């Protein structure tokens, strides 16, 4: 099992879910089985989660390559450098070697349906991230058009904060904000098109971008159950929460607890961990055909 320690390899960042190692001219990104909910890393891992997220991201890298390049160099452990050979089996399926990039200081959220924090905001004042929406929307309704709603990037223990497009401009500049908005919407629309063929609704999702050799590229995960809300098309019905193929099931369980959503996270029963794992595996199989 991967335990955030590769002897002889320099760990440079331990994120909520991913560990980053410095290989000199590139980085090794390892997706762990850790789960972050409400921006808190849970104490119990989700079996197989890291491999699922990696394989789904690799699938989407191929699907959206015509829209924007990404940071992937290789995910084939047999092509990894010698320093990683002793760790080949723990890295297989859950890791990739990627280009070094300077991440933008915003996360790029696209919402096609109103749910989660967007629904809470709409109930409060009829807006999402400063965008006024039509009156009378129900929870999980499809929006008239997908919305680009950026957020700040949170460190472990901190919360992402939804911001307006104008605030994103203040952080990354007008030209870059417009560019990532247009690319984010294009990726989302492509994802929606592909997912519809597989009977899946992509309610919302989050992207990250970075600069590499003067070019904007897609980094981190893409359209995974960690970064998106996936609903079965067959049971979709506006007016309340939906069934899902993502970590919403896990979030819903946490909402039943007397927990204030600050670290440390609560211990999770084995059956909840197993069911969450099944949800992730279901998403992998639906998108990629891989069991």
From TrEMBL:
The keyword Coiled coil does not apply. The keyword Ligase applies. This is Phosphoribosylaminoimidazole-succinocarboxamide synthase. It is an enzyme of class 6 (ligase). Residues 12-262 form the SAICAR synthetase/ADE2 N-terminal domain. It comes from Desulfoluna limicola. Pathway: Purine metabolism; IMP biosynthesis via de novo pathway; 5-amino-1-(5-phospho-D-ribosyl)imidazole-4-carboxamide from 5-amino-1-(5-phospho-D-ribosyl)imidazole-4-carboxylate: step 1/2. InterPro entries: SAICAR_synt/ADE2_N (IPR028923), SAICAR_synth (IPR001636), SAICAR_synthetase_CS (IPR018236). Its EC number is 6.3.2.6. Pfam families: SAICAR_synt. PANTHER family: PHOSPHORIBOSYLAMINOIMIDAZOLE-SUCCINOCARBOXAMIDE SYNTHASE (PTHR43700:SF1). Keywords: ATP-binding, Ligase, Nucleotide-binding, Purine biosynthesis. It catalyses: 5-amino-1-(5-phospho-D-ribosyl)imidazole-4-carboxylate + L-aspartate + ATP = (2S)-2-[5-amino-1-(5-phospho-beta-D-ribosyl)imidazole-4-carboxamido]succinate + ADP + phosphate + 2 H(+). HAMAP family: SAICAR_synth (MF_00137). Gene3D superfamilies: ATP-grasp fold, B domain (3.30.470.20), Phosphorylase Kinase, domain 1 (3.30.200.20). Belongs to the SAICAR synthetase family. The gene is purC.
């Amino acid at each position: 099992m991967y335990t955030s320690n590769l002897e002889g390899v320099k760990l440079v960042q331990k994120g909520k879910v991913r560990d980053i190692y410095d290989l000199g001219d590139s980085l090794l990104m390892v997706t762990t089985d850790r789960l972050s909910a409400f921006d808190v890393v849970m104490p119990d891992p989700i079996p197989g989660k890291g491999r699922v997220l990696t394989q789904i991201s690799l699938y989407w890298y191929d699907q959206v390559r015509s829209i924007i390049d990404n940071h992937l160099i290789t995910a084939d452990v047999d092509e990894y450098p010698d320093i990683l050979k002793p760790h080949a089996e723990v890295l297989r399926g859950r890791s990739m070697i990627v280009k070094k990039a300077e991440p933008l200081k915003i996360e790029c959220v696209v919402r096609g349906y109103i749910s989660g924090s967007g629904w809470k905001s709409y109930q409060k004042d009829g807006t999402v991230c400063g965008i006024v929406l039509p009156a009378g929307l129900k929870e999980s309704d499809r929006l008239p058009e997908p919305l680009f709603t950026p957020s700040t990037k949170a460190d472990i223990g901190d919360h992402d904060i939804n911001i307006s497009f104008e605030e994103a401009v203040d952080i990354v500049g007008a030209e870059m904000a417009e560019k990532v908005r247009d690319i984010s919407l294009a990726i989302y629309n492509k994802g929606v098109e592909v997912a519809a063929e597989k009977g899946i609704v992509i309610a919302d999702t989050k992207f990250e971008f970075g600069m590499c050799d003067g070019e904007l590229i897609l980094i981190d995960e893409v359209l995974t159950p960690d970064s998106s809300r996936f609903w079965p098309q067959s049971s979709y019905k506006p007016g309340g929460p939906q069934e899902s193929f993502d970590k919403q099931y896990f979030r819903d369980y946490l909402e039943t607890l007397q927990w204030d959503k600050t670290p440390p996270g609560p211990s999770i029963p084995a059956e909840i961990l197993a069911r969450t794992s099944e949800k992730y595996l279901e998403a992998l199989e639906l998108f990629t055909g891989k069991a």
